[in-house]
Amino acid sequence: MSENNDLERKLSDILTEGEMDQGDRKAQEIREISPKYEIRIQTTLDPIVEETLRYRKIGRELDDRYDKYMDRAEKSSNLEGGSTAKGDKA
Fold first, then answer.
1. Where are the domains of the chain?
2. 8 Å CB contact between 46 and 73
3. pLDDT band for position 28 (cuts 50, 70, 90)
4. Using CA atoms, how far apart are residues 48 and 74, in angstroms rounded to an integer?
């Protein structure tokens, strides 16, 4: 048991002696600050929808994992006045 106490005391001494290095802390804080500006590119077509439509022309999905996404994309394109996400057949 005294070995554990000695180890704990040595560890405590190592961690508490001396001053903290403030330079590294300042650099770390600067790195963690989120950027002021964010670049976003607005597209007219959703690449996920377009790719999903192409794959669905080739074959059938086994698990229908993109159905919810396609439904949301269709609703949002209808709200914006665009064509349906499943494609217009004219």
1. 39-90
2. yes
3. confident
4. 12
